[in-house]
Amino acid sequence: MIMIKIMIMIKIRTMTKTRIIKFGYAALLISIIGMYFGCGERYTPEQKEYISRIENSRLEKDLDMRENPSSPFNFKRKVEFHPLKYFDVDPNFNFQSKLVKHEAQDTVLVYGTKGDERKVVKFGYVSIHYNGKNYKVNVYEGSTRSGEIYHSIWFTDKTTNEQSYGVGRYIDFELVDDSNFIYTIDFNLAYNPYCAYNPDYSCAIPTKEDYIDLAITAGEKIFHD
Q1: Could you tell me the pTM of the whole model?
Q2: What is the DSSP string of 128-186?
Q3: Which one-letter DSSP state was computed for residue 101?
C-alpha cells in the first residue's frame, strides 16, 4: 500500500514538472512572438516608410557598385563583388542640427591609408543628442584633384574595427548658404570609403578628434570578414 502511494506521488510530481516545462516553453514562445511583432509595431508609419526608403537605396547602391565601370569593384582592378553589409535601419540614428562654423577655420593635415598627406579645413561641427548625451561631430572642407570643393563628415566610434570598417566611415555633407538651416545627419547613410573594398585606393583617415564615444550601430558594416 505504501509502495503504491509512493508511485502515485512520483507520477504526480513527474506530470507537474512536465506541465511546468511545457508551460515554460509556451511562455517563451509567446514572449518571442511578442518581441517580434512588438519590434515591427514600435515604428510610426512615417518611420516605416523611411526604413523602406533606406533599404531600397541600399539595393540600388549594390546594383551600381556591381555594374558601374567606375566603381571600386571594377575601376582599378577587378574585385569580387558581393552585397554590401549594413546594420538594420534605425530611425534613432537620424539627427537634425544646425551647423556651427569655426571662427578660425584652421587648415589641418590628415593622412590617407597609403601614407599620403592631405590638407583640409576644419570647417565646423554639428551636434547630435543620443541617450541623454550630446556629441559634437566635425565637418571638414576639402577639394578634389580637379579643384571642386566638398564638405564631409568622417568618424570612428565604438563599433570601429569590430562591426564597422577599421579606418572609419563617412557621411556626405551638402553645405547650405543659410546660418539657420537645419541639417540632417543620418548615420544610416554612413558608408565605407573605397579603400574598404579595393586596396588600390587611398582614403582619408579620421583623426582622434573625430571619434564619437558611442556605438553607432547604423550604416555600413565591414565588407571583408
Answers
A1: 0.80
A2: EEETTEEEEEEEEEEE-TT--EEEEEEEB-TTBTTTB-SS-EEEEE---S-TT--EEEE
A3: E
If you count them, how many residues does the chain have?
225
- DSSP output for 1-18: -HHHHHHHHHHHHHHHHH
Q: Which three cell numbers stand for residue 40?
A: 515591427
CB 205 within 8 A of CB 140: no
Q: How far is CA 200 from the centre of its chain?
A: 24
- Taking CA 171 as the corner, what is the angle to CA 152 and CA 104, rounded to the nearest 5 degrees? 30
- C-alpha to C-alpha distances, 141 to 101, 160, 165, 206, nearest whole angstrom: 11, 23, 22, 13
- Residues above pLDDT 90, as percent of the chain: 76
CB 87 within 8 A of CB 186: no
Span 55-71, pLDDT tens digits? 999 999 999 999 999 99
Estimate the share of the chain in helix, then strand, then coil, as percent rounded to the nearest 5.
35, 25, 40
109 versus 17: which is more confidently predicted? 109
Distances (CA, A) of 4 to 1, 8, 10, 192, 225: 5, 6, 10, 73, 63
- 3-class secondary-structure state, position 90: coil
Tracing cell 587648415 back to the chain, one arrives at: 107
Cell numbers given for 145: 584633384
The residue with cell 540614428 is 93
